[in-house]
Amino acid sequence: MRIAEGGLEITVADARDGAQDGSGDSVFFNPTQELNRDITVAVLRAYRDREPRAETYLDAMAASGIRGVRAANEGYSVTCADIDVDAIDLAKENLAGNGFDGEAIHRDVNAVLHDGYYDIVDIDPFGTPMPFADAAFANTRDLVCVTATDTAPLCGAHQKSGIRKYSSLPQNTDYHPEMGLRILLGALIRTAARYDTAATPILSHVSRHYVRTYLELDNRATRADRAIEQLGFIHHCEDCLERDHEYGLFPQSVPEHCPHCDSNRTLTAGPLWLGPTAEAAFAGVVRSHLSEEMGTYKRAHRLLETIEGEINTPTHYDQHKLCELWGVPANSMDEFISALHDAGYDASNAHYSGTAFKCPETIKTIEAAAAPEKD
Ligand SMILES: C[S@@+](CC[C@H](N)C(=O)[O-])C[C@H]1O[C@@H](n2cnc3c(N)ncnc32)[C@H](O)[C@@H]1O
């Protein structure tokens, strides 16, 4: 089946043949990942201004090669890799059909990376990216782009699987998309540090059922040490929903009672990333590189605008959950955030959902400043 994406024509397998969930024999293709791919193209454009030296792009898990074709269209020197021979045949056809002479290799990406360096590596697997993280951080010069679709292990809903895959303890909280992102970032940043490399997230988003992040690399051990210093733990109360953060590789103590309400329903998650998940200025540059022919232009624009304005501290609150806790009807997000600003607090929308917001204050302070009136 022929589809058009980003102004290019690509041959992909049909969803009716199991292409979308990877269930059938056909080469994987998921049309709902167009937002992910559109933002990737805008990142590749923005990254050229930031690091003009970056030239080579490895579409490490190419399937139809759609990412590779789109990167080649941006002038990158592209290699597609996949362990599925049908995928590689299709990726070759799609590169050639669009007039690009990129390479397509039928090989395990860990072996491909063992043999050579790339400036930008894009890891887009089924489920967890961790089996590919070591090879990616050891053999990439500038930027590692990562998708993780195993959101249930990441956010603590499938906790044992999360512990196995990410060597960390995730907890299922009311801010589960951010929990997932920070658990993933913690694991990726620790993996990069094994190679004396600092991996800094310059853009991240959690959309639908996946996490996407772009990590810029710096091969200085001192920078890797500084990245490790931004790992830590979240202590969360299931009753009052307050959460506290603690930096370090070991929690000083795991609270048995919530310091805010004395409940014994406390959870500790980590180690996870407590640093910024994106650079606001870079998100703005990426937004300026979206183009209107992109199928998800409006959504991507809105998403990046929110990320640009998002306060970059852990963790977001859900306004509906807080209003439920306070026993009041929810008002509009604009009204709610304005009330926080009027009271002199920093507050912003957060991209995780329409009711997500960031405010570095406690729930008690937020309630006093912005809780809507009871009916
Ligand atoms: C989710 S799909 C990739 C989708 C594609 N990047 C896109 O945007 O449409 C994952 C692909 O990874 C491939 N794959 C799985 N394990 C691999 C490995 N070890 N090395 C290379 N490719 C692998 C699968 O064959 C599959 O085509």
Automatic annotation (TrEMBL):
GO terms for biological process: tRNA N2-guanine methylation. It catalyses: guanosine(26) in tRNA + 2 S-adenosyl-L-methionine = N(2)-dimethylguanosine(26) in tRNA + 2 S-adenosyl-L-homocysteine + 2 H(+). InterPro entries: SAM-dependent_MTases_sf, Trm1, TRM1_arc_bac, tRNA_met_Trm1_C. Pfam families: TRM (PF02005). S-adenosyl-L-methionine binds at residues 37, 67, 82, 108. Zn(2+) binds at residues 237, 240, 258, 261. Dimethylates a single guanine residue at position 26 of a number of tRNAs using S-adenosyl-L-methionine as donor of the methyl groups. This is tRNA (guanine(26)-N(2))-dimethyltransferase. It comes from Natronocalculus amylovorans. The gene is trm1.
